[in-house]
Amino acid sequence: MKAYVIAIPNHKESQSAADICIESSKKVKNDFEVIKFEAITPDRVDDMLKVENIKWNYPWEGSVTDFASGLTKAAYPTKNKSARVACALSHYHLWKACAHGDSCYLVLEHDSIFMDKIDHKIIEKSPKLVISINNPRFATRRAVDYINRIKESTPDRQGVVKAPYIDDMNVPQGLPGHSAYIIKPAGAKKMLQLVNEYGLWPNDALMCNQLFFGLGCTQKFYTQVQGIRSTTSL
Fold first, then answer.
1. Which domains are assigned to the chain?
2. Residues 6 or more apart from 31 whose CB is under 8 A from it?
């Protein structure tokens, strides 16, 4: 497995948080190295979308019905639009790299911190294609409901449950945020297909149960968010 933490270049808070993430992995004695992945920055967004030949297809205000999927796309609170797109592109580039290889990727956002050692070799054997290892608390909306659904579910032999639904079926929902998840090459290929079919959305919205069969969560949480200021919403 390859592990990457997304860190914004020349951004003090992001780099510091990523360093904390890396050190926390060493502290719990994980058997893999967490490497910094240089995040796509807002000033590169327009050129990157052209190079990848993809279009942003998500509203900035209000909500709209996506006729291709039937889902309701509600705008995220976003001060800097380019920062939101840059975040999605950072995940997209890791999906692309994973899809063209034969290794699972552990994708971490800079606000992740390890609380326990993860036996990724066991978790990777789960039939799920993308698996969150993160505590939903402070990482997603309706976190208490999300946690309860996970705890009430019956896990597979690898301790993984299906990512639960916590809202109306027309609302995109999947993992409890994107702070820490394992993605397999087959899952990465599926995400690239979704971008081609529906356009680029916020990464945690496009990777949803309604469009992606095979999303899971570990019943035991190995990471949590550090609680730092958002670089996309504020």
1. 2-225 (3.90.550)
2. none
